[in-house]
Amino acid sequence: MTSLQQTSPALDDTLEQALRHPQMPPEVQRRAQDLLHRLRNTVKIVVLGAPRSGKSVVIDMLLGQRVLGVQAGIPIVEITYGAYETVRFETPDGTVEDQMGCLCDYEIKGEVLSVAQELPLESLKAHNIIEITVDGDLAHQQAIVQHAADYADVLIWCSGSFDTREQALWAQVPERRKDNSFLALTMVGPVGAHEALPETLSRVAPVAETEFLGIYPVAALRDAEALDAGDGADANLWGTSGAGQLRKDVLQLVASGRAGDADQAAVLLQKIQTAPWFQQVEQPRPVAKEVASGTVLEQALDHLQHKTQAMLAETQDMDPRSAAVLAQCVEAAREMTNALCNTTEQGTGLTAARAAAEEGEEMLMLLQLEQDEEAATDAVTVLLQLKKELTSHAAGQEGGE
């Protein structure tokens, strides 16, 4: 993990620079964008299960300290890195309240929609932990599980029995996500209630062994006592359940996954840098002729007008995440930047236009990397705003002649 943190900054910057090459094939671009996203974002560990299934204790165990405690009824709790221990409460009416400390320090009164907990733990620079409660009717539960599977990099399902109802919910999780998942059999009752564990394991194992990386019996109350025993977890209590092994295996999966991403990015980058198309130097866009100051800006505006009109028409019928629209937006901005930078004309308006074009191109490239739900529509909006700025600069250029 240490070596990855030392090498990845240079690696992701180099990969981002390579992505600017105009001749990069679309399939290589998609792969490079995916790896860059994974290098620059923390791993998302999602802990989910029914209410009172021991999720909070499992998360406290992953953190190595008591942070959440036992807090029932909060649909979503997210734990991320922060310089200080702070907790933010959000209610259904949109009210937000920030407090110092940890969630376990507060008694929840009234309905809370979500909680955001920040902690100054170095491990949280590599991964976030999100607790999601699976409740409501069957359709709602299915939607929650599907959303969690789409969002997560690592899944931990908490259950006291992993019965047929839960098995049916888990069945909808994609196979690729099951490859990075764990089952925590959380016994939340007193020690005497754990006598049925061998029977539960015997029933669950044939199904769970093919659905999860591992099954971990976790004595939730006992592990909570271990975390409360003093400075760190009590070794004797910690060793009486699978909590310690679960924590070790989850963190090892995170570390190996991030190291694997770095290795894949390094290999891809080497292939990109040795590809024939990468060696080609892009030729400057030809300028038709030397003309009066301001004409290049007018030509750029005409070109941009044509491009934005065409792409606005396309976004009416295409998925707003359309990679094709995003690529066209980046291409339009790049062509315009080249045209403005390759002219010998001078002027205050032209200088400002160049800066605006370069900034617009950078914004569009970021949208292309992120590809969120409205990326293509946002990209066209950026082009329209750029057109508005260039029109203003063109007027200033003419006025300064």
Brief synopsis:
With 401 residues, the protein is α/β, with parallel strands linked by helices. The chain folds into 3 domains: 61 residues; 200 residues, Rossmann fold (3-Layer(aba) Sandwich), CATH 3.40.50; 105 residues, Up-down Bundle (Four Helix Bundle (Hemerythrin (Met), subunit A)). The chain is 53% helix and 13% strand.
Strand order of the largest sheet: 4-3-5-2-6-1-7-8-9
Residue share in helix = 40-55%
Number of helices: 15
CATH class of the largest domain: Alpha Beta
What low-confidence regions span 5 or more consecutive residues with pLDDT below 50? Answer: 1-9, 188-195, 229-239, 283-294
CATH architecture of the largest domain: 3-Layer(aba) Sandwich
Q: Any idea how many domains?
A: 3
Please give a handful of descriptors for the protein shown.
401 residues, 15 helices, Four Helix Bundle (Hemerythrin (Met), subunit A), alpha/beta, 3 domains, nine-stranded mixed beta sheet, Rossmann fold, P-loop_NTPase, 9 strands, 53% helix
Descriptive overview:
- By secondary structure, this protein is α/β, with parallel strands linked by helices.
- It has 3 domains: 1-40 and 262-282; 42-241, Rossmann fold; 295-399, Four Helix Bundle (Hemerythrin (Met), subunit A) (Up-down Bundle), CATH 1.20.120.
- The protein has 15 helices and 9 strands.
- The protein has helices at 2-18, 26-40, 55-63, 138-151, 164-170, 175-178, 197-208, 220-227, 235-238, 243-274, 276-279, 295-315, 323-341, 348-370, 375-399; strands at 43-49, 76-81, 86-90, 96-100, 114-119, 127-133, 154-159, 181-187, 215-219.
- It has a 9-stranded mixed beta sheet, with helices on both faces.
- Strand 8 (181-187), helix 7 and strand 9 (215-219) form a beta-alpha-beta unit.
- Helix 1 packs parallel to helix 10 (243-274), helix 13 (323-341) runs parallel beside helix 15 and helix 14 packs antiparallel against helix 15 (375-399).
- The protein starts with a helix and ends with a helix.
